[in-house]
Design goal:
Radius of gyration: 22 Å
Structural class: alpha+beta
Shape: globular
Oligomer: single chain
Number of strands: 5
Amino acid sequence: MNKLFAASALGLVLGFSANAMANPAAGGFTGPSQAAVSVADAKNLSDDTPVVLVGKIEKSLGGEKYLFTDKTGSVTVEIDNEDWRGLSVNEKDTVELRGEVDKDFTSFEIGVDSVIKK
């Protein structure tokens, strides 16, 4: 009887674990999120400050660098290849970029963590 119970319990645990891995729970915070800032405002923020920008990626500058523009100006953004997550955009698409300010004495750019097509 104990062997049968142990086998049944193991089957339930393995079945549950496989199901949980095959169907990961979607979820997370659903409340308010960080508001978008303009390029002009972002230029006044400190290094490593999280930012959300909404505008257009105008062109590639080579490598993983791009020229991003909104109604207040332009800034170089760095988007690592894996941060595109399969998304394709062109210069006509409005995008939301989430990342952080990367600023030192001689340069300013935004290190992007995610790109969302609007």
